[in-house]
Specification:
Blueprint: E1 2-8, E2 11-16, H1 21-47, H2 64-67, H3 82-85, E3 105-107, H4 125-131, E4 143-147, H5 162-170, H6 179-182, E5 185-186, E6 189-190, E7 196-198, E8 206-210, E9 219-221, E10 235-238, E11 249-251, E12 262-264, E13 270-272, E14 275-277, E15 284-286, E16 292-293, E17 298-300, E18 307-309, E19 315-317, E20 320-321, E21 323-326, E22 331-334, E23 342-344, E24 352-354, E25 357-359, E26 366-369, E27 375-377, H7 381-384, E28 387-389, E29 394-399, E30 407-409, E31 412-414, E32 418-423, E33 429-431, E34 441-444, E35 451-454, E36 461-463, E37 465-468, E38 475-477, E39 486-488, E40 491-493, E41 500-503, E42 510-512, E43 515-517, E44 524-528, E45 541-546, E46 552-557, E47 566-576, E48 584-593, E49 599-603, E50 614-622, E51 625-628
Parallel strand pairs: 2-3, 4-8, 8-10, 9-11, 10-13, 11-14, 12-15, 13-16, 14-17, 15-18, 16-19, 17-20, 18-23, 19-24, 20-25, 23-26, 24-27, 25-28, 26-29, 27-30, 28-31, 29-32, 30-33, 31-34, 32-35, 33-36, 34-37, 35-38, 36-39, 37-40, 38-41, 39-42, 40-43, 41-44
Antiparallel strand pairs: 1-2, 4-5, 6-7, 21-22, 45-46, 46-49, 47-48, 47-50, 50-51
């Protein structure tokens, strides 16, 4: 069954939902239960006297330490010179055809979470059952609450509000409850005075639903901060679920300071199909561990970040950050958060960010500030890749020397100012998933650079990516200490300036087995003093002979002296004609080390593709210091134009 189809420029968007016959039966049974739950308040209103006014005890709300935001550097510090003088533009290059991604985007069916009271389990039933099992043999199973009012009140009346449901789940509110309220608190047991005596609340796995009578997107406008989700057992806050397609909107516009719209303080909780908008701080703040922000959740139009995470091993998946899913136009409208879409604070580690649309945010899409071991994307594009686009500064920023061992995998990152920036981060990986043909990072159409490595970024790897149609450089290595980074097996084409640019301060970086062509500057430009000079610095390497029949290419370069740690390798490329006369390495042919006299030879397996024209890059170790050069002068340079590039 197809629920919704969308058409987004560049690729189709289809949401698929398949239900097996046991779940179909469960949907019918649960649907009747939902009707009964939603009918409870109406029955109570008809059959009971007006509700009594009963004072409930004062309850605690988020404390300052729950909402404190760590200092972060001024974002404009990373924009220098001409970049700082112009506002970031969300445009591709002004000339040339558009370069849309050819990969289809398919929104996957939700994996319904465990709801023991309804007998519904997730993908891994045994693991789920163990994770959410009662703490002991006599422990109650679970509570199932149905919010049936958009009011933000805490009173003895005929309705259960979201505020009351959260308080009950935390164990902070035990009564008294009217009969109509009790009808919405399934699993709880009550005494004759309406006080909870067991079955739900503290130390129990509770699930909060929303009554179908509230409509598709009911708005709950907060009068004050909501109580944090803080129970020791999981709480599920679910909008749409099987039979019930209610997607509540929490409007936090009345909060003050930097208060978030929703705080998750404890562990193993899940939020799904909930929108949080207009908070003065983050839309959603996650301080606990192993929590999941799940399908169809929207964090938009908040004055802080969309989602701010300080905990460990949390997951954000199948969510919309900075956009509004418009069911009238079947499109996503920009509704960006003022700061980052997702901010990973320095205390956070091991966050998984997969299969989200993250767009239109005032700073970046994803910002990991001295946060490590996070995964952005995953092994396959279809099931894990994010769309990260139209953010004012970066699509992704790995920021600080402790931003380490993060993996960026199988995403589309486009129409930001910079696609990906690694600023002082170390040992991070930008790579493909299981299949480099389909599951690569596509970094394209960003206004400035595709990738920036700067401010002492070290030991990072870029592999199996496609970097094209960016307004300035494909990859830009900047600043002193930016060293020992490696680029390999990556396509860099049609960028507005150089394919790879390394400024005069960065050094000791390597590139090999690349595909670089049709960039408006040089294919590779090292010791670059500015963005536009395009002054070649050719390596000492010569092609002395080419056999067009056998493909044997021979030449001369610096000799290798392994005993003193001097190693020289030559990477041979078929050229793409370039007005500089130095060509670009359009197709990698092979590599060889030089002998002590500097001789080398490489055989082209398909010499007919080259027309006998080649260029080369020299790389190696000079007394254990790594290096790589620009492309050499082509052996066919006498037969191609040598006009300088503009």
């Amino acid at each position: 069954m197809i629920i919704r189809e969308r058409s987004i420029p560049g690729r189709p968007f289809v949401r698929h939902v398949r239900l097996s016959w046991p779940i179909t039966v469960l949907v019918l049974v649960a649907g009747l239960a939902g009707l009964w739950l939603s009918a409870g308040p109406a029955y109570a209103q008809e059959g009971e006297p007006p509700p009594r006014v009963i004072t409930r005890p004062h309850l605690a709300y988020p404390t300052p330490e729950m909402i404190a935001v760590e200092p972060r550097p001024e974002r404009d510090d990373r924009l220098t010179g001409a970049e700082a003088a112009q506002p970031p533009a969300r445009l591709r290059r002004l000339d040339g055809p558009l370069a849309p991604s050819s990969r289809p985007w398919v929104e996957l069916a939700p994996e319904w979470p465990v709801v023991p009271q309804l007998g519904v389990f997730g993908k891994d039933q045994q693991a789920d059952a163990a994770r959410f099992a009662p703490a002991g043999p006599s422990a109650p199973l679970a509570g199932t609450f149905t919010v049936n009012s958009t009011a933000d009140t805490h009173a003895y009346d005929n309705f259960l509000t979201l505020r009351e449901a959260l308080l009950v789940a935390n164990g902070a509110l035990t009564g008294p409850f009217s009969p109509a309220e009790q009808a919405q608190l399934i699993g709880c047991s009550f005494n004759s005075s309406g006080w909870i005596t067991g079955g739900c609340g503290a130390n129990i796995h509770d699930t909060i639903f929303f009554a179908p009578a509230l409509g598709f997107r009911p708005v709950i406008t907060l009068a004050g901060p909501l109580p944090p989700i803080s129970d020791t057992r999981p709480t599920l806050l679910l909008g749409a679920f099987l039979f019930n397609n209610v997607q509540p909107v929490i409007n936090a516009q009345n909060l003050t300071g930097t208060q978030p719209g929703l705080v998750v303080q404890s562990n193993d909780n899940r939020i799904a199909a909930i929108s949080v908008i207009s908070a003065p701080g983050a839309g959603i703040r996650i301080n606990g561990n192993q929590n999941t922000v799940d399908y169809w959740t929207m964090a938009r139009n908040n004055r802080g970040d969309g989602i701010y995470i300080t905990g460990l091993t949390n997951t954000v998946q199948n969510a919309y950050i900075g956009v509004f899913s418009n069911t009238l136009t079947n499109d996503f409208d920009c509704a960006g958060n003022l700061q980052d879409g997702i901010y990973l604070a320095s205390a956070s580690r091991g966050t998984t960010i997969r299969k989200n649309i993250i767009r239109c945010n005032g700073y970046g899409g994803v910002h990991a500030f001295s946060s490590s071991h996070n995964l952005i994307g995953g092994s396959t594009y279809i099931t894990n890749g994010n769309w990260i686009a139209d953010n004012t500064i970066e699509g992704i920023l790995l920021n600080g020397s402790n931003a380490r061992h993060n993996v960026i995998q199988a995403n589309d990152i486009y129409s930001n100012f910079v696609g990906v920036t690694i600023s002082a981060g170390q040992h991070n990986t930008i790579t493909a998933g299981l299949d480099p043909i389909d599951d690569y990072n596509y970094i394209y159409a960003n206004a400035s650079d595709g990738i920036q490595l700067r401010s002492g970024a070290k030991g990072n790897l870029v592999a199996h990516a496609v970097i094209d149609w960016n307004g300035q450089h494909g990859v830009n290595l900047i600043d002193s200490g930016t060293a020992t980074n490696t680029l390999t097996r990556t396509l860099i084409m049609y960028n507005g300036r150089d394919g790879i640019r390394q400024d005069s301060n960065a050094n000791q970086n390597l590139w090999r087995e690349m595909e670089i062509a049709n960039n408006y500057g040089l294919g590779i430009d090292i010791n670059a003093t500015d963005d536009t000079s395009n002054v070649p610095h050719p390596p000492y390497v010569f092609i002395t002979s080419v056999n067009k029949t056998t493909g044997l290419v021979q030449g001369k370069a610096n000799g290798s002296q392994p005993l003193v740690f001097i190693l020289t390798y030559v990477d041979l490329y078929r050229i793409a004609l370039d007005p500089s006369g130095f060509g670009e390495g359009h197709e990698f042919v092979g590599s060889a080390s030089t002998d002590s006299s500097g001789n080398w030879s490489i055989t082209d397996p398909n010499p007919s593709l080259s027309n006998g024209c080649y260029t080369a890059v020299v790389r190696g170790l000079a007394i254990v210091v790594p290096y790589a050069t620009e492309f050499s002068l082509s052996n066919c340079s006498a037969f191609v134009p040598t006009v300088r590039k503009p």
